[in-house]
Specification:
With 333 residues, this protein is α/β, with parallel strands linked by helices. It folds into two domains: 155 residues, Medium-chain alcohol dehydrogenases, catalytic domain (Quinone Oxidoreductase, Chain A, domain 1), CATH 3.90.180; 151 residues, Rossmann fold (3-Layer(aba) Sandwich). It is built from eleven helices and 16 strands. Strand 9, helix 4 and strand 10 form a beta-alpha-beta unit.
């Protein structure tokens, strides 16, 4: 089968389209014919070598964290899926590789594709949907009437998180550029701040939750808009000791993460708020609940552009510009 493979780490490295072996199938795995895959900044960061300490993939390997496609074969222990099922998933860490014609995925990481979405739309959902779900529902326990600040509202995670937060009954503030104000309002944002013109710290006060996806300076300002007892969940770092425990990191990685997050944890403590880092996990059950929300019309995918398989490198370059509205998708089949 064909796949886009990373031969060596590096910011300027291009993925190579090459023939690779069809993946072997474990007894609890399903083999999925990939119809479409989403592109995430995470793919670029992995290519650049930014996560080598946490996820030491050995080149050559295939990138790609989102998939929508059709089950072509199932392992002997698979109970939930059968050949012909239309599914979508975010494969587990160390089992990624959706920039390919086929991928083997554990059945616990898969869900049936929402009926009313195309393969391309479905492929835009898993990583950002699970990120928003795990941040707002699992970590923040966001409740009706609470105030949440979701940074970068027109991005992949932002467009999904705004819709999920509104479904939960929260009051939603977000930042975006002037060109995307109408988009984020249409998704349900109550307070929209043009980040080029205004400073959110002077406008937002006494917030319950912040979903941080930006740089260290923005993170620090975000801590100050929380009310005492408020929660900041960051998906852009720095990783904290809890995350190090979660991934059973070696002692020296635990030490590095403790040091990396020491400053922000200290500031949070001083302000009587909490800081936590989230690196989302593959989760088929949560994805099934997201499917229900999509089928009910509560959440709609936001897809900026669809690239053909041959233009996978161009799709990654476009995501890296930071200008995409919602998600960028690659059509494979």
């Amino acid at each position: 089968m064909k796949a886009f493979v990373l031969k060596r780490y590096g910011k300027k490295e291009m993925l190579q389209l090459t023939n690779v072996a069809t993946p072997g199938l474990g007894q609890n795995e399903v083999l999925v014919q990939v119809h479409a895959t989403g592109v995430n900044l995470l793919d670029s960061k992995l290519r650049n070598g930014e996560f080598k300490l946490i996820f030491p993939y050995k080149p050559p390997f295939t990138l790609g964290h989102d998939v929508a496609g059709v089950v072509v074969k199932v392992g002997s222990g698979v109970k939930q899926f059968k050949p012909g099922d239309e599914v979508y998933a975010r494969p587990a860490d160390h089992r990624i590789g959706t920039f390919a014609e086929q991928i083997a995925i554990n059945e616990n990481d898969i869900a049936l594709k929402p009926k009313n979405l195309s393969m391309e739309e479905a492929a835009s959902i898993p990583l950002v949907g699970l990120t928003a779900w795990q941040a707002l529902i699992e970590k923040a326990n966001l409740k009706k009437g609470q105030k949440v600040f979701i940074q970068a509202g027109s991005g992949g995670v932002g467009t999904f998180a705004i819709q999920l937060a509104k479904h939960l009954g929260a009051i939603v503030a977000t930042t975006t550029s002037a060109a995307n104000i109408d988009l984020v309002k249409s998704l349900g944002a109550d307070i929209v701040i043009d980040y080029r013109k205004d400073d959110f710290e002077t406008i937002l006060k006494e917030y319950d939750v912040v979903l941080n996806s930006q740089d260290a300076k923005t993170l620090e300002k975000s801590l100050r808009i929380l009310k005492p007892g408020g929660k900041l969940i960051s998906i852009s770092g720095p990783p904290d000791p809890d995350f190090a425990e979660e991934i059973s990191a070696p002692w020296f990685v635990k030490l590095i993460m403790r040091l990396l997050s020491a400053g922000v944890r200290k500031k949070a403590k001083r302000l009587h708020v909490s800081f936590s880092f989230l690196f989302m996990k593959a989760q088929g059950n949560q994805l099934s609940q997201i499917t229900s929300l999509i089928d009910a019309g509560v959440i709609k995918p936001v897809v900026d552009r669809i690239f053909p398989f041959e233009q996978t490198n161009e799709a990654m370059a476009y995501v890296e510009t930071g200008r995409a509205k919602g998600k960028v998708v690659i059509k494979i089949k």
